[in-house]
Write a structure and sequence with these properties.
With about 325 residues, the chain is an alpha/beta fold. The chain is about 45% helix and about 15% strand. The strands form 4 sheets. Strands 2-5-8-1-9 form a 5-stranded parallel beta sheet. Strand 3 (about 80-85) and strand 4 (about 90-95) form a beta hairpin. The longest helix is centred in the last third of the chain and has 17 residues, at about 245-260. The protein starts with a helix and ends with a helix.
Length: about 325
């Protein structure tokens, strides 16, 4: 697990050269990357959402495609289109911007629902079907979508089915005064992203993605995950709770966070730290709770406080035997 921790830290440290003072947000994005999940970055303009996606692609030496969503976009503008080649007398597939490794879906809620839906197959099945022909997406593949939570005019809120496809929701937030001063000084002559270098190889990233899944999750932790997700379904403040995909997302993200903490097993603290980013966007607040100005994040936070934390040993017998031998 030490190798995984060092691998993840190299990415985080590289991203922090560009994104100042947002180590928690950066860590969540790296967790999403190692879980092969997608991340919804929700915040006001100008706090570094787009720059975070660009910096991640440069750090990994991956292909980066940006899709600027607008109301007049068509699904074919995202997935690609078949064009008739008059010389060859056959149709050729012209790949859309979704055919990349790190894809930024900028202001995704500005596109119409039909265009938003063009992302679903790519995000869930890592493939795109155009004119009945399926085209696999490259590995790794990750969508980072951004949206402004304040401005609603001329936007189309993402449906629950699409929100459920995102492993995590991340909020950047404003920098502190000292951090903003550092941003001004570092960008006086050039932007730090201009000198950013790749720090990992794609083959090492794919191996890390496989190794993350070997992190041990004890039955007690699994029951804890199921209990937290189940409470979102039975809460009086929730109209629609998290799906089993939410349980699996919490399971996978917990494995990644444990590896980043240099552990070969998941602790309740990992699940607690990830519950809001993983579950907050998956539940629909009831009208009564909305009148009381209760947010989804607040409801999940209350569920974390009220749910009993399992006790016992969280390591597997095999791992404990190895520690005793050492």
């Amino acid at each position: 697990m030490t190798e995984l921790k060092e691998f993840a830290e190299s990415i985080v440290n590289n991203l922090e050269q560009v994104i100042v003072g947002k180590s928690q947000s950066i860590e969540l994005v790296v967790i999403g990357l190692l879980c092969q999940g997608h991340v919804l970055i929700e915040d006001v303009p100008g706090v570094g959402k787009t720059m975070l996606a660009r910096s991640l692609a440069k750090s990994l030496n991956c292909t980066f495609n940006r899709i600027q969503f607008t109301p007049d976009m068509l699904p074919s503008d995202v997935t690609g289109v078949s064009i008739f080649n008059q010389q060859k007398r056959e149709f050729e597939f012209r790949a859309g911007p979704i055919m990349g490794q790190i894809v930024l879906a900028d202001e995704v809620n500005r596109a119409t629902p039909k265009t938003q839906a063009s992302l679903l197959e790519a995000m869930e099945e890592h493939q795109v079907t155009v004119d009945g022909i399926t085209h696999p997406l490259p590995k790794p593949f990750m969508v980072l979508a951004t949206q402004n939570p304040i401005e609603y005019e001329g936007t189309f809120p993402l449906p629950e089915a699409q929100l459920d496809r995102f492993l995590l929701r991340v909020r950047m937030g404003y920098p502190s005064a000292s951090e903003e001063m550092r941003i001004l000084n570092e960008q006086q002559f050039q932007h730090p992203i201009d000198t950013l270098k790749p720090v990992v190889k794609i083959k090492d990233l794919l191996k890390a993605i496989e190794d993350i899944r070997k992190t041990y999750v004890s039955p007690a932790i699994q029951r804890y995950i199921i209990d937290l997700v189940g409470r979102t379904r039975h809460s009086g403040d929730v109209y629609l709770g998290a799906s089993p995909r939410g349980s699996l997302a919490l399971f996978r993200a917990g494995q990644a966070r444990a590896a980043l903490q240099d552990r070969d097993h998941v602790l309740p603290d990992d699940i607690k730290a990830l519950a809001i980013p993983v579950l907050g966007h998956r539940i629909i607040v009831s009208p009564a709770a909305r009148l009381r100005e209760l947010s989804a994040d607040r409801i999940v936070q209350e569920i974390i406080y009220s749910a009993p934390v399992p006790g016992g040993d969280y390591q597997s017998d095999f791992l404990k035997a190895k520690v005793e031998e050492a």
